[in-house]
Design brief:
The protein is α/β, with parallel strands linked by helices. The chain has seven helices and seven strands, in the order βααβαβαβααβαββ.
């Protein structure tokens, strides 16, 4: 079975100079609902009040699309995302040695611990939550790190691993591990 996940509202605003007003976001959601997509990323509430408000409005719409949000590996992000009764949650964290050492100043083992604890926390907050783990920056990451992080995420309770781990690009799709 093929299911469609639309990332327009989150990824669309990643392009410099692109911003969707709330009425545009609502119109996009209605169109996507009409064509029958299965999942929609409503945004990352921790980014701004505008995105938080949009996620809240979208999550309370009477549509058949399953709504999801993004979260960093922080309990506060998880709590904020789940207060909108979303169906799925995308958790992301980088596992490239360069960024771990230079930006996060932590060893790979700490990153794995952070990823797994966050997924486990999200699972305890909502049992039927669909959890997707996305390893950021995979093109600059040792493939072994990507696979190790993906395996740890699945063992911790992730249902989906982003297909960018396969080297297909960020928007190539997802790998369902259930």
């Amino acid at each position: 079975m093929v299911q469609i996940l639309d990332t327009t509202l989150r990824e669309g605003e990643q392009t410099p100079g692109v911003y969707f007003d709330i009425h545009i976001k609502i119109a996009i959601v209605n169109l996507l609902n009409h064509i029958g997509i299965d999942y929609l990323e409503a945004g990352h509430p921790a980014v701004s009040d505008e995105i938080t408000n949009a996620v809240h409005r979208i999550a309370t719409m009477n549509i058949h699309v399953k709504i999801g949000t993004h979260a960093r590996t922080l309990a506060t992000d998880i709590d904020q995302a789940l207060c909108y009764q979303v169906s799925f949650l995308g958790i992301f964290y980088c596992v490239s040695n360069g960024r771990l050492q230079e930006v996060y100043r932590q060893p790979f083992t700490h990153a794995i611990k952070n990823i797994t604890e966050t997924i486990q926390y999200a699972r305890t907050q909502k049992q039927d939550l669909i959890i997707r783990y996305t390893p950021e920056d995979t093109v600059r990451t040792d493939f072994e790190n990507v696979i190790t992080a993906a395996q740890a995420a699945v063992e911790a309770g992730a249902d989906i691993i982003d297909a960018s781990i396969l080297g297909l690009g960020e928007q190539a799709g997802i790998v369902d591990l259930t």
